[in-house]
Amino acid sequence: MEILNNLSGHSGDTINIGIVSLLKLPLIIVLFGNVLFAVLLLLRVRILSETFETTDNKLIRYIVHIYLFTSVIGSIIALLFLLIG
Amino acid sequence: MAMKEDKNKIPAKFRNIKKSFMDTISLNNDHSFMSFPKELNFHGKEKGEQVVLIIRSHWIVTVPYFFLAALVLSLPFVLASLMPTFFSSIALLISLIITSLLVSLGIMVSTFVKWFYTVHIITDQKVVDLDFTSIMNHPMAEAQLERIEDVTHKQLGVIGSVFDVGTVYIQTAGAQNEIEFSNVPRPRDIQDILFDLLELKQKGEI
Fold first, then answer.
1. Does the beta-carbon distance from B39 to A55 stay under 8 Å?
2. What is the pLDDT of residues A18-60, one digit of tens each?
3. Which pLDDT tens digit goes with each residue over B93-149?
4. Which of A7, A21, A44, B175 has the smallest C-beta neighbourhood within 10 Å, fewest atoms?
């Protein structure tokens, strides 16, 4: 009977760990995807600013650089929280 | 004073032109409808070519994306209230909040960049359509004014009637036979401008 109780307790823990891990994995993928998106957006803006040249291009490049920087720093912080969580 | 500024903005080439579009083109200019812009260059612009009009999508078209960003931002709080057992760990919740913040920031920045670089240019020689359809491609189409066969426009439903938004279709003779200015402000004015420019081009006045 004791063996059976222990078994049931163990199986519950395994399920809990599984759910948390399942939640962490998509978050890591989303964070990685977001950084990749920011890099691609920066590259695209570089090309487009040469195709269409205005005085506002500097502002757009500045905004995209800030977005990339925020994405990288934010992703690192979120990843650290995921690891300790 | 404002009228004087508008007159100064008009390049010498167009100052003596007596056409209906000249009365309306300089009115209510903003980043979505900008007449005779200065310090502007684009790929394929000829020497001496005068840009008449720069058109971007109306701001109302971007509103759903900003709602989407707000929805993504509120998602962790909704999930935490619906499934409190999953988010018993504060670290996990903070991580989810940061992720949603970054994703919503991404939606807002990409919407703005997409709006800025989806640009339609009307010059005294041609019509250029630069589209930012996705992060992977940006098709660019252009047609000489002489090759334009017909210009039509369509209002964008109820929102189009309220905010004067619509799509302008430019029928051209060539392999790519239609250029589309999607969800642009003042579509009737754009149609009028194009017809007047075509007439001026045919007469050799520009």
1. yes
2. 667 777 888 999 999 999 999 999 999 999 999 999 999 999 9
3. 899 999 999 999 999 999 999 999 999 999 999 999 999 988 888 889 999 999 999
4. B175
Q: How far apart are CA A15 and CA A10, in angstroms?
A: 9
Residue range(s) defining the domain that contains residue A75: 26-84
The dihedral of CA B168, B171, B174, B177: what is its sign?
positive
Count other C-beta atoms under 10 Å from residue B202's C-beta.
10
Q: Please say whether the structural domain B2-57+118-203 has been given the CATH code 1.20.1250.20.
A: no
Cβ pair B43:A51 closer than 8 A? yes
Phi and psi at B179, nearest 5°, equal: -110, 135
Residues of A with CB under 8 A from a CB of B: 19-20, 23-24, 27, 30-31, 34, 37-38, 40-41, 44-45, 47-48, 50-56, 60, 63-64, 67, 70-71, 74-75, 77-79, 81-82, 84-85
pLDDT in tens, B24-39: 887 778 889 998 888 8
Q: Does some domain include residue A16? A: no
Tell me, yes or no, whether A47 lies in a domain.
yes
Asked if residue A80 belongs to a domain, the reply is yes
Give the residue on A whose Cα is nearest the Cα of B89.
Answer: A85
pLDDT at A12: 47
Nearest chain B CA: its distance from A10 CA (Å) = 18
Of B73, B80, B30, B75, nearest to B55 by C-alpha is B30
Q: Residue A35 is encoded by which pair of tokens?
A: 């950084």
Cross-chain residue pair A37–B41, CB shorter than 8 Å: no
pLDDT at B4: 45
ipTM of the complex: 0.85
